Model the fold of this input.
Amino acid sequence: MQFQESIKTCFNKFIDFKGRASRSEYWWFVLFAILVNFASNLLLPSSVGTIIVLVLMVPQICAAIRRLHDMGKSGFWLFLCLIPIVGLIVIYWLIQKSVPTANEYGNVPTDLEIIEIPK
Done:
């Protein structure tokens, strides 16, 4: 998944906690959120920057939950991020490769479908 496609997908699934998100979808959106937060803090008044951060927080949480679903884990594991050192486990899971088969949360994300090359 490319940068623009990832942003579009995450905003289209703004409050969708169901399904799966590929690793590229999640991390491209995280990069977008970091860049927007950085630019808003530099260029806009702090109150506007705070609103932008809060607006971007919702799709980031939803994408993280869908990413955990992609690993076969419940979205409730995201609460581990609230515990200082233990929260690193969640970051480790978010970095891992996707499970290449369908799981209880849905089919493999479309950008992960394995294309077989004829021999």
Summary: The radius of gyration is 16 Å. The chain has one domain: 3-112.
